[in-house]
Write a structure and sequence with these properties.
CATH architecture: Roll
Family: Belongs to the HupF/HypC family.
CATH class: Mainly Beta
Strand content: 35-45%
Largest sheet: 5 strands, antiparallel
Helix content: 25-40%
Radius of gyration: 13 Å
CATH topology: SH3 type barrels
Number of strands: 5
Shape: globular
Protein name: HypC/HybG/HupF family hydrogenase formation chaperone
Organism: Candidatus Thiodubiliella endoseptemdiera
Distance between the termini: 23 Å
Structural class: alpha+beta
GO molecular function: carbon dioxide binding; iron ion binding
Length: 92
Amino acid sequence: MCLGIPAQIKEIIDVDNQVAMVNLSGVSRAVNIACVLSDVCQAHDLINQWVLVHVGFALSVVDEEEAHKTLKILDEIGELSATVEEMNQGEK
């Protein structure tokens, strides 16, 4: 199953290449933020915002309440722990 997982942008690590560090349940991962940038939204405006992440790309911005609801549901069905484990394995 392909899911966009909510994660919070913690820092911008490469403005030119549009890369940010996100946090998902204590796991940090670099993601491309090109899809969520626009003329009115610069990279640093995204710090602490929640985004849906899929295969290393932030696809859309979501509000914090929706992010927490989604994470809760994913945790209940077991998808969150599997995703976090996959992210951890990718770091090795």
